[in-house]
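User: Before I run my own analysis I want an independent prediction to cross-check against. Here's the chain; please return only the structure tokens and, at the end, one sentence I can use as a sanity check.
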Amino acid sequence: MKKPWSGRFKKPTDILMEKFSASISFDRRLYAYDIAGSIAHCQMLGKCKIITQTDSKKIIGGLKRILKEFESGKFECDDRLEDIHMNIENRLTELIGSVAGKLHTARSRNDQVSLDIRLYLRDEGEEVVQLIKILAKTLLVLARKHTNTIIPGFTHMQQAQPILLAHHLLAYIEMLLRDQERMKDALKRINIMPLGSAALAGTGFPIDRKYTAKLLNFSEASHNSIDAVSDRDFAIEFCSTIAILMMHLSRFCEEIVLWCSSEFDWLELSDSYTTGSSIMPQKKNPDAAELIRGKSGRVYGNLVSLLTLMKSLPLAYNKDLQEDKEPIFDTVDTSKMSLSIFNGMIKSARFKKIPLHRLDISGFLTATDMADYLAEKGVPFRMAHEITGKTVAHCIESGGNLQNITLKELKNISAYFEKDVFEHIKLENSVQKKNVYGGTAKKQVEAQIARIDKKLKNKPKLSHSK
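Assistant: Structure tokens:
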């Protein structure tokens, strides 16, 4: 098959090389963006009288027909035509004849592919923003249900202090909101229009790049033609943002796996998001959480792949850049599926009643409150810390805990202890005393919920209006 660049060559492309260099197997998903970009480019060529309005209308009509063929599943891609751009151009020639060749005036596949990726990531990024918002709302509903549920907070995977389950869930919402803001910010740099940069130097035709940018809802046109076709930092930033998001989901999934274990027994996932064992009839495995946790690794790999791809590329365009698409596509697909599955999993999950008497048997959850009690009595905190440490050591040696130690035992350790210490080290009182902004007291948690609820109700400002 004749190549668009065949004029320079005397020998045909090796068959294996043809397969090796073809990208149509994965970049065909860009068809709608490629056609949208071509229509805008053609409109601009007509407006600037670089081609006639008659030719412009004929080309646009052909492109719209090709779009319908794709959408109906009738379009057949040819691997010999390398990529989505040449497949569309070849079909356009079949439909309208040689006038189709005028479409490529004042552009290159270099700026064309950069445009397609930006258009694609703009839409996908905005969808990710919405999926994050949906998940955050689901978690907020769950938090509202558990403003009275006390759980142990952990450090070093050891019980540390009592907190509200709502407070724990709100921590993940805060992370998700930052993920959302990062994506919205990344979209600002994605929403730059590269078309008109051509191969690398721009074009000698009197094009109107601002007009093309307006047609495609870009905030502005790129400022440097070399930079526009040769860098993919906007895609790297997108994948970096998704990697952070997946890290947050993975951390949450790790806790969900723990909470579903018989050792914790705090949470039960719906049958719809779990599987059984092929040999052990009793098993109910948290596969959804484990898979999301595992898929974070492939997203990290995609990010590293793009960074490695770009690290030694001289300016301007190099064929290496063809390798950018599969990591980008996989990152988009993995993150969207993970967000959707996570939302369904946590929305249908059921938290079990956590018996308060189980929480402070061995973890000494209110030891810090005991130290604070002594500090409030005027004991220097370092001394209060030491006294409380000795109290914990005594409990361990005697097989007791802070809930059953006697006042006599406490007096033997320090004369500063009075009967009112027992009120200070109750789990409920410990939680309610953390009444500082951002703390775990119910009043503060309810304020956090109200603030986040207001934020989630605001319509996010995205990179462009559709």
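Sanity check: The beta strands are 150-155, 158-164, 192-193, 220-221, 267-268, 350-351.
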